[in-house]
Write a structure and sequence with these properties.
heterodimer; A: mainly beta; 7-stranded mixed beta sheet; 4-stranded antiparallel beta sheet; B: mainly beta; 11 strands
Chain lengths: 118, 110
């Protein structure tokens, strides 16, 4: 597709269940980012992928959160044993990495996956 | 790590007025400062950016200024229109990841 695609767009789950959120970045973008947006809060960085490796996962809130990326393309963010405080919009973004492995700048965001934990 | 503060959290203006949003950052190594606009139900979208070797950049009705010494940068929107109503985020980047401010909800009344 032309843009970053995220699924599901909405997910309602019960406390304690596991959820998986998917991100399909723009073709050719080697950098992929996950951010979390809670009500009234900014964009909280979670993890950054460069190809299939994650040089910066410092934003993952706890060991219940994990993410992987395969084939340098699709990424999955997994939240185990969900808690009510996990309720938020999870945004994925991708960007192009230049020769020096520095992002050229613009992040292209998907529309997000809204997670509600009851 | 980087810390970005953004003010105000909400801003209401009349159509045609100017709007200014201000941000400060903490890491003097940051060298890239973008602004994103987020409309309801959408992901943020880049509207303008500035790099540390430039003090000001303008694109039609929007402009960004950067003061590296004071570590602050600002977004200026002139002749505001109702379609400018959205949440605006500033951000700063040093090496690889963007750190965002908490956002400003701009409301432009007709």
């Amino acid at each position: 597709g032309a843009g970053v695609s995220q699924s599901p767009s909405n997910k309602v789950t019960e406390k304690g269940k596991d959820v998986e959120l998917r991100c399909d970045p723009i073709s050719g973008h080697t950098a992929l980012y996950w951010y979390r947006q809670s009500l009234g809060q900014g964009l909280e960085f979670l993890i950054y992928f460069q190809g299939n490796s994650a040089p910066d996962k410092s934003g993952l809130p706890s060991d219940r959160f994990s993410a992987e990326r395969t084939g340098g393309s699709v990424s999955t963010l997994t939240i185990q044993r969900t808690q009510q405080e996990d309720s938020a919009v999870y945004l994925c973004a991708s960007s192009f990495l230049g020769r020096k492995l520095i992002s050229t700048g613009e992040l292209f965001f998907g529309e997000g996956s809204r997670l509600t934990v009851l | 790590g980087e810390n970005v503060e953004q003010h105000p959290s909400t801003l209401s203006v009349q159509e045609g007025d100017s709007a200014v949003i201000k941000c400060t950052y903490s890491d003097s190594a940051s060298n890239y400062f973008p602004w994103y606009k987020q409309e309801l139900g959408k992901g943020p979208q880049l509207i303008i950016d500035i790099r540390s070797n430039v003090g000001e950049k303008k694109d039609q009705r929007i402009a960004v200024t950067l003061n590296k010494t004071a570590k602050h940068f600002s977004l200026h929107i002139t002749e505001t229109q109702p379609e400018d109503s959205a949440v605006y985020f500033c951000a700063a980047r040093g090496y690889s990841t963007l750190t965002f401010g908490k956002g400003t909800m701009l409301l432009v009344s007709p």
